[in-house]
Structures are given as C-alpha cells and as structure tokens.
Amino acid sequence: MTATQTTKYYDVVIVGAGFAGLYMLHRLRNAGRSVIVFERGDEVGGTWYWNRYPGARCDVESLQYCYSFPEAEDTGWRWSERFSAQPEIWAYARHIADKLDLRRDISFTKRVTAATFNEAKGRWYVETDKGDSVESQFCIMATGNLSEPTVPNLPGISDFEGAIYHTGAWPRVEPDFTGRRVGVIGTGSSGIQAVPELARRADEVVVFQRTANFSVPARNRPLTDDDYEAFKAQYPNRRAVARRTFSGTILPRSLGVNAIDAGPELANAEFALRWGWEKGGGASFLNAFDDLMVSRESNAIAADFVRQKIKEIVTDPEVAASLCPKGYPIGAKRLACDTGYYETFNSPNVKLVDLKKTPLECVTGDGLRTSEGEYLLDDLVFATGFDAGTGAISRIDVRGRQGKQLKDVWSQHPSSYLGLMIAGFPNLFTITGPGSPAILTNLLVSIEYHVEWIDRCIADLEAAGHTIIEPTEWAQEAWSTEVAKTVEGTLFLEADSWYMGANVEGKPRVFMAYAGGVHAYENRCETIVAQGYTGFDRRG
Ligand code: NA7
Asked: Which amino acids bring their CB within 6 angstroms of ligand 1?
C-alpha cells in the first residue's frame, strides 16, 4: 500500500506483546521514541498467554526466567515455586506491564497481516486484520519462536463431534474435563506436561504417541524465603554470570570431563544425582558431562540411564517399552521436564497407544481409529507443536526491497544476519530470530540481549546520521555458514526435531539456531558493533 495523509506515523512498530515486545517497548519509549505494539491476544504474555494448558510450566528456574533490567527489579514480585507454572508467569508479564505502564501503547486483538517496506520513503507500512494501517521507520518482530501452533491434517478431523483443543492455543475459559474421555495426540514437552494433569481431571485419558520423548523429573518445589534470600543476595552477579554461560542459565556444573572417559559407573552415579533432588531439574541432566551432544557413546550412556528409569517406574513392561525413546540421541530433541509423567501410566484411567505399532488411520465422529480399533473420546487435545522459529513471521505478508517476500526467502533457508536482521529487509528486526542461539537458551536472557542490541543499534544509526540499516548478502551468507559450523559434528543433527524444521512438511531442513552458546554469540555481536557494524550497510 502507499502512505495516505491519514496513515499514522510511529518511529517503531512492534509486533507481539510477549516478554520480547514488552521490554522492547519499554526501552524504546524511554529513549523518547513513538511506538505502537500490535498484539493478537487480548492481554500481554505471548507464549505464556497462549500456552495455558493444564500442567504448563517453565523448565528454567523462576529466578532466572525473569527480566534482569533494573526497572523490573523491586517491583514487589515474588516467585512461589522453583519452576513456575503458566498462571504465575503470565501474572508476572501482566505485573510488569502494569508497573511500567506499558498497556497504553499496546493495541490488543490485532493480528498484523502485512508489513511492506517503501524504498523511496524508507518507511514500513504495517496493516492489521482490524483495518489498522500505520507507517514507521522501524518494524520489530517480537513474534516468538513457538507461537504458530500446528495441527496435523488428519483424515476425518472435521467429523469429530467433541471439543478440539491445541496446547498452544488453549481457551481462556478452562474446559471442564470432569467425567470425560480425553485423547491427547503428541508427546513432546507440552503433551508430557499436560497428560498427568489431564489424568487428574478427566475420567479417562488416551495418549497417542508417535515418537517417545526423553523426559527427566523437573524436581519442582516451593521457593522458601531462605532460597529466595540466598539467590537475591547475589542477584546481579548471578544474572551476569548466566550471560557468560552457554545456555544463559546457571546450572549445576558439568563434571568437566567426557562421560566416555568417566565410564558408565561414574557417569550413571552422576546421572542419578541429576535425576534426583540433589542436582536435578531443568537442563541439569544434559549438563553433567562435556561430550553428551557430540559423542554417540556418551550420549548412549545417558539415554540408557533414562530408559532404565522408565522401566523402573512404569509397571506394565509393554507400556514401559513403548515409552522408552529410541532411534535418536537424548537432547537432540528438546529434553522434556515433567512432574509425574511416566508414573501417570500406572493409573488405571490412562492408556498409551503406540502409533508406531498401531498407526493412526483417521478421526471419526466420536473418537480416533488406529489399525487396532476405535477409541471413543469426548475431547481431543493436540499437543502437536509449532511451526517454530520462522512460522509466525512467515504468516505475515512481509515485503522488503523490490517487493521481496520474506516467506519466499525463508522457504529456501531460514536466513538472517545474527538472528537480528535479514538482507533485503531494511530496518526490520527480529527478536530471537532464526540464526541466533535463542531456542537453545534461557529465552529471557536472549530476549534482553536482543532488545538492548536493537535499542543501541537504532541510537547508533541516528548518531551516525543515517536512517537505514540492512545486512549485506555476503554477511548473511557468512553468518549462515558460521551457524551451520556451530552444529557440525553434534548430535543435534540426528533427530527429526522442530529445531531442524523437521516437524513441518515442506519446511527447509536446517538447524535453526547458533549452537555456539550465549556467551560466544554476544561476543560476536559486540565485536561487530565495536568495528562499526561490520556486515551492515548503513545509509540514508
Ligand atoms: P513438539 O516438541 O514439537 O512435540 C509435538 C508432538 O506431537 C510430538 O510428539 C510429535 O510426534 C507429535 N505429533 C505431531 N504430529 C503428529 C501426528 N500427525 N500424529 C501423531 N503425533 C504427532 O511440541 P511441544 O508443544 O510438545 O513442545 C514444543 C516446545 O515447547 C518444547 O520443545 C519446549 O521448548 C516448549 P513426532 O515426534 O513428530 O513423531
């Protein structure tokens, strides 16, 4: 579209009011810029707004999965558990929005449908499904990595007469599952978290598993005042240390050796500590040794440990065998953290259907049919994941220079420079975009770094007397090569994961993250800035 006199101008349009959009708004507003945020939900919170399914919980400790910037401190917030559940994280997002008075610049229930760059004017034109049309110098996608749910196109799905839910688009009014027979399709993190909770609420739960996933106990517990004071006493230091780690999270230290050198006996003893209360919870399990994601032999020791635990917990040997993941390395798909998942299969009201043995044939009016027979169900819960990384942005008609469509660019390769900008799309930023380490890290740490980087980048651009910034093609290609190198030789490449885009038909099979760690990544970005924004063309 072209600008009309009625098109309202903002310095910056932000798409999304999750943790990324909220902090970005705060930073830019503090810098004196006019900003509007478009959010498709009717509240702030992003991922934690949509993923309100029973059992939804973060796998990063609450005291680390929160903002660390000064104005977010001392706002009177107190986490109640070691790993927070969705209602508390969502309440935190709302609390921050209140304390920083963010809502006045957020336009809710608006889905951004198009963003078009007008080269002659150096402006973005952004449209929503509610008829908004605004003009801005910069456009920032704070759309999240796991925000476009995928529902498999199962034959007969439209015949189903019961209710259908997706864990990533859960209704605002909690469904009542009392007395109902619920089918859950999908056993990634979301299914693994939802199943124990649904089993408590429903009459019967049938879990349809295509691929068994590795899961370790979350070891969640209430946060005592002592825990709280101990962490808070060293708070700034701990947050700074986290940023110098691989994952942006402080975890029990690795033993500093390879599991293969330690040998199975010592390795299993350490895994036992990390399965238990002593060192357990979150990503601690995979942090035990240095070679778990590069050595097949070491990885097999860890995988065997988990399989042995499953066999000890699940009383029916056939069910236990089906629940044991096989055919890919532990950690190559995101390791799930559960609270009583495997134990749930000992309940008389929970049944596992192994789709590898009895494939799904179709949905019927009142259930699901596999090669073995029909399961009668009142409700279907899809825990089938997301078109991750590129999905949410690709659904917006984003057009850069010469009408180039971002969806087309990404249909070949999820290209970007630093996960922050894309060649051909001037003044468009992506917070935690593909090509950054974000999806392998504590997202709050990655978000804060990107927000601060973008804020400074815009200020530096202005100070240098320019109005346009865009990465060069060569810098972007070199970055893609560098990203690919970080994952070369690792076991991440050996699973059909959403990290690889493998869960979405037709998506390029490329590992979407920089796997060199938060610290190395931030150093790279800082060097690029210090050298005068190497790889970026600044003009206008
Ligand atoms: P995931 O991890 O992508 O898991 C999706 C699950 O759904 C997985 O078990 C899939 O099996 C299953 N799935 C997908 N399509 C089908 C069909 N057609 N039939 C049967 N089963 C299917 O998504 P989550 O929401 O659990 O987790 C995403 C991230 O959120 C997680 O990694 C954390 O970072 C938080 P498959 O493995 O493809 O055989």
From this structure: 146, 152, 167, 185-191, 208, 210-211, 334, 355, 360, 383-386, 498, 503
